[in-house]
UniProtKB/TrEMBL annotation:
Subunit structure: Homodimer.
Family: Belongs to the AB hydrolase superfamily. MetX family.
EC number, as in UniProt: 2.3.1.46
Cited Gene3D superfamilies: 1.10.1740.110, alpha/beta hydrolase
Name recorded for this polypeptide: Homoserine O-succinyltransferase
Annotated site (Important for acyl-CoA specificity): R326
GO molecular function, one term: homoserine O-succinyltransferase activity
Pfam family, one: Abhydrolase_1
Main location group: cytoplasm
Chain ranges of the AB hydrolase-1 domain: 51-361
Enzyme class: transferase
UniProtKB keywords: Acyltransferase, Amino-acid biosynthesis, Cytoplasm, Methionine biosynthesis, Transferase
UniProt organism field: Sediminicurvatus halobius
Length: 384
């Protein structure tokens, strides 16, 4: 329990809620009659509303990107490494906003919300949402906050895809797009990982075609397995070897020849899976992985990412990590090449890091320095 907060932390924060009563037409063809978004803000919006930065979260992220909700919190928000005084997203200069995505399970309207038409949880009846739908909902949040144009939209992984979508769909409302550890679309291998995770959930006896909530149960085993699989892909082999090696659990010095937990890595993955079940919803996980699979802006332009990005007027920062095998540097360079083809201003950094895909969440010094330097330029542009 932090008795006091670090000087570079935003400290105690409180989630806020925005209600949008107007209908939202979704890319899947269905319409939400209205929706709510839960969000957090850090820093102060200046008089010109020119210093706002939108942070888009990844697959299992939430609106809680920095700081603490209570002095009892053991951990800060998920991007504490990058948000706070003096950090890349310097809250002494920027007004940082992060919302829980539409379809999420941490307060924004999603499968666990009550369907106004039935009075029951949406569950599997919640419509499929896409990255483009998230951008449309986030634009309404910007209107709600009085922000006409973001100084930057930033994100890692699935969050980076949202930054790209912002640049394509609403070019007049974004000055910089920062895509970290992202890709222009998923590979077949990535879609395959997502499908295995979804099948783990859907084949759980407690899934009940997605109506587990009304039955008062949770497809725990399926959701746990999905998270364990996903977690393996977020780490590099080097990171797992360094962290666990082939070490047996503490107190053990030999094999027991059974299928219970013996190795440290088994214990770690089970812990990650079990704790995930306590904080995430299975239908939301299905929804988010499908949104990842569907993201492919080049598809509507004959497979040309350059043509898809032609409408963008933002300047771009693209960062990748050498040990990220889920979205390796070669995928980020696809984005860079597409931008250069149409003479878009782009800065690219390939960061040496052993942490795998999760490196974008880590306080890797070179990464933070490159990110901070770029954002300092953004701050200077808006006189923040």
């Amino acid at each position: 329990m932090p008795a006091t907060y670090p000087a570079d932390s935003v400290g105690l924060v409180e989630p806020q809620r925005a209600v949008f009563p107007a209908p939202l037409a979704l890319e899947c063809g269905r319409t939400l009659s209205g929706f709510e978004l839960v969000y957090e803000t850090y820093g102060t919006l200046n008089a010109a509303a020119s210093n706002a930065v939108l942070v888009c979260h990844a697959l299992s992220g939430t609106h809680h990107a920095a700081g603490y909700h209570s002095p009892d919190d053991r951990k800060p928000g998920w991007w504490e490494a990058c948000i706070g005084p003096g950090k890349p997203l310097d809250t002494d200069r920027f007004f940082v906003v992060c919302c829980n995505n539409l379809g999420g399970c941490h307060g924004s309207t999603g499968p666990t919300s009550t369907n106004p038409q039935t009075g029951e949880p949406y569950g599997p009846d919640f419509p499929m949402v896409t990255v483009r739908d998230w951008v449309a909902s986030q634009a309404r949040l910007a209107d709600h906050l009085g922000i006409e144009r973001w100084a930057a939209v930033v994100g890692g992984s699935l969050g980076g895809m949202q930054a790209l979508q912002w640049a394509m769909d609403l070019p007049d409302r974004i000055a910089h797009a920062v895509a970290i550890a992202a890709a222009p679309r998923l590979s077949a291998q990535n879609i395959a990982f997502n499908e295995v995770a979804r099948q783990a959930i859907r084949s759980d006896p407690e899934f009940h075609d997605g109506r587990y909530q009304s039955r008062g149960v949770i497809p725990r085993r399926g959701l746990m397995l999905a998270r364990m699989l996903g977690h393996i892909t977020y780490l590099s082999e080097a990171a797992m070897r360094e962290k666990f090696g082939r070490e047996l659990r503490r107190g053990k010095d030999d094999y027991d020849f059974h299928y219970e937990v013996e190795f440290e890595v088994e214990s770690y993955l089970r812990y990650q899976g079990e704790s995930f079940v306590e904080r995430f919803d299975a239908n939301t996980y299905l929804l988010m992985t499908k949104a990842l699979d569907y993201f492919d802006p080049a598809a509507a332009h004959g497979g040309s990412l350059a043509r898809a990005l032609a409408s963008a007027t933002a300047r771009f920062l693209v960062l990748s990590f050498t040990s990220d095998w889920r979205f390796p540097p070669s995928r980020s360079r696809e984005i860079v090449r597409a931008l250069l083809e149409t003479y878009k201003p782009v800065t690219y950094g390939e960061i040496e890091a052993d942490h795998g895909h999760d490196a974008f969440l880590m306080p890797v010094p070179q990464y933070l320095q490159v990110f901070r330097t770029y954002m300092q330029r953004v701050a200077a542009e808006v006189a923040a």
